[in-house]
Amino acid sequence: MSSRNHDQWNATPDLQQGEWVDSKIYSDEEIFEDELKKIWSKTWIPVCHESELKEAYSFRTMTIAREPVIVVRGKDMVVRAFLNVCPHRGNMIERRPSGNYKRGTPSGTPKTMTCMFHAWSFDMKGKCVNISRKAEGYQDRLNESQVGLRELKCEVYFGGFVWVSLNDDIGITVEEFAAGSLDVLAPSLNEEPLEVFHYHKAIIPCNYKLWHDTNCEFYHDYLHYHNRITGFNEAYFARKNSGFDGGHINVGSFEVQYDNYEGSHSREELSFPHLPPNHWYMIDMFPGVNFNLRGSALRCDLMTPLGPNSVMIEFRGLGLASDSKKDRQTRIDHHNSIWGPFGRNLHEDLLAVTGQGSSMHPMAESRKILHGRHENETIHDENGMRHYYEEWGKLLNRSPSNPDETFKPYPAFKEQEAQRAAAAGK
Amino acid sequence: MAEIKHDLKEQVRELIYNTCIHLDDHQWEHWHDNCADNFNYAIRAFSPEVQADIKYHGGDKEYMQSITSMLSKHNSDQSPLRRHCTVYRVDVAADGKSAAAISSLAVYQTQLDGINSHVDAGTTSIFLVGRYNDKFIIDGDSIKFEDREVRLDTRRLDKGTHWPI
Ligand code: FES
Ligand SMILES: [Fe+2]
Q1: Ligand 1: which of A70, A84, A89 to mutate, most ligand atoms within 8 Å of CB?
Q2: Average of per-residue pLDDT across A368-396
Q3: Backbone angles phi, psi at A213, to 5 degrees
Q4: What range does the domain containing A260 cover?
Q5: Ligand 1 center to A106 CA (angstroms)
Q6: Tens-of-pLDDT digits for all 165 residues of chain B?
Q7: Distance (Å, whole) CA A28 – CA A24
Q8: Which of B49, B77, B116 sits opposite A358 (nearest CB)?
Q9: What is the number of domains present in chain A?
Q10: Is A91's C-beta closer than 6 angstroms to any atom of ligand 1?
Q11: How many CA atoms lie within 13 A of A14 on its CB side?
Q12: Which of B61, B50, B81, B62 is nearest to B161 (CA)?
């Protein structure tokens, strides 16, 4: 058989469970709503970095599972998160991406979050401190203590990232949620304060998981000239992908040969603390967070799923807060030569997932997407994606390869191989 | 003297416009030829999200030369970018040895292969808007770029590009 007819094309691949997924998981409206409800509204999501909230009264706004969120630093320097929604008539309280409440707003006094609509205002702990003309309108039927903001779970953890959960009953800390997946970079990120030096965003017509998959698999080195020329040696192919509870993975390190790419140089001098020179670790956290430390610069991708075929990705670059001006500039150049909007690799990655989004749009016939490479859990093994979809299947109770059926736990690969051999023998 | 200055202003304008043609048409060598040895290039934008001025891309002449020489090794969106540029102001230094210019810039992108070419190829949209802030060295008849800052208003570049702006 060479090319295939429709039935052959749609036939179940001759692979084991977990080694392929149905493309419906990347395009179906109902599955997308399920994901927002059962995954994105339930878990810890990093939303920004504390260096974006340096001073008391500073704030940042964002969205989690379509809910507008605001993060503020109080007078006590504690970072808190609230729904960015006014309890009066539901206006979004803060419209700006960032700012500081030390200065008043046209409708509000300094040091309060004030809804511009009817000027109800709130302190940095979410307490309502003013209902305009309260006595005239509400007499003694409603007072400030009844109309505080909705506070959200919030933690600053792992090199100063701010994590928020919409789920009051989450019951676990970020550390517990990470299940050890952050340990590999914790010494490098926790040694001294970090600072964001790069931010840009992209809205891409593809499912958010396609971006996460791309961050989880390195077989796509064939897309990147830079990776092939600076990697592709024995140490490179020995890099391990390891899974952690909760669907998180780590991609192990090796020494990048930067000098092999014209115009690029060793990053040894500006290595992050405790990181061997020119090494490159990656952490991919469920359901769609990426921490990527390449020698001198940390990249972090945060995703906001907008629809089954639309995702906003925010790209941040971070260095050490103590950087000299010159060192900072070098880190920025290192980061953006590969990962900026004009960088060598990012553009290629984004082109590829855009192509996937074009072929797996919501009206497309579903296809079998292969995640079946096994290479001893090394760099071109696709165990990272398989590990992710096992968790995804569990949480949604849907089989990734047949999402209309309920989830059955994936047997370990060796067991699957044994089953396969037994089946072949009979 | 006033006439010489007027003439230099006109030559600076011409250089900016010719460079737009070079960049539109990927005549990278012509672009590099018109840059001084100490040339510096940067694409920058202010991010209100993180309240910081951000350098997206750039480097010295040698670096920009390596960027353009490596293009064929990379997978790139080949959708053409077309500049619309208006030189707003040229200031020539009193000694006639340097100049600075501010130009308004819009870059249009006409889809070719970036999405689904059957459907999208031929569609034009605005890729970015911003300004060129340029500095020049003047030495007799020769005018060369000493510095180019592409100052972006647009901060959603989505897929981005491998090409200098
Ligand atoms: S909606 Fe906010 S004060 Fe009325
Ligand atoms: Fe990549």
Answers
A1: A89
A2: 96
A3: -55, -45
A4: 179-420
A5: 14
A6: 667 777 999 999 999 999 999 999 999 999 999 999 999 999 999 999 999 999 999 999 999 999 999 999 999 999 999 999 999 999 999 999 999 999 999 999 999 998 889 999 999 999 999 999 999 999 998 999 999 999 999 999 999 999 999
A7: 5
A8: B116
A9: 2
A10: yes
A11: 5
A12: B81
Going from the N-terminus, what domains does chain B have, and what CATH number goes with each? 2-152 (3.10.450.50)
- B contacts of A354 (beta carbons < 8 Å): 114-115, 159
Domain annotation covers residue A128: yes
What is the distance between the alpha carbons of residues A130 and A139, in angstroms, rounded to a whole number?
Answer: 14
Q: How high is the ipTM of this complex?
A: 0.96
pLDDT tens, residue by residue, A210-242: 999 999 999 999 999 988 888 888 888 888 999
The answer to whether residue A324 is domain-embedded is yes
Instruction: Give the CATH number, domain containing residue A231.
Output: 3.90.380.10
b or e along B10-35 (b: 16 or more beta carbons within 10 Å of the residue's beta carbon)? ebbeebbeebbebbeeeebeebbebb
Query: What average pLDDT does chain A have?
Result: 94
Query: Residue A81: enclosing H or E segment and its boundaries?
Result: strand A79-83
* DSSP-based three-state secondary structure for A219: helix
- What digits encode the pLDDT tens for the residues A160-219? 999 999 999 999 999 999 999 999 999 999 999 999 999 999 999 999 999 999 999 999
Q: Which ligand is nearest to the CA of A120?
A: 1
Whole-number Å distance, alpha carbon A15 to ligand 2 midpoint, is 26
SS3 A325: helix
The residue to which tokens 């590829």 are assigned: A352
Helix, strand, coil shares, percent, chain A, to 5: 30, 25, 40
Instruction: Give A13's strand partners.
Output: none
Using alpha carbons, list the distances in angstroms from residue A105 to A58, A164, A240, A247: 13, 26, 52, 43
Parallel/antiparallel/unpaired status of strands B142-152 and B35-47: parallel
* Size of chain B in residues: 165
Gap between the Cα atoms of A18 and A381, Å rounded:
13
DSSP for residue A132: T
Whether residues B47 and A202 touch (CB distance < 8 A) is answered with no
Residues 8-27 in B contacting A (C-alpha not used; CB under 8 Å): none
In the structure encoding, which two tokens stand for residue A97, read together?
Answer: 């991406």
Confirm or reject contact between B118 and chain A (CB < 8 A): no
Place of tokens 């964002």: A62
Pairing of strands A128-130, A151-157: unpaired
Residues B70 and B85: their CA atoms lie apart, in Å, by: 27
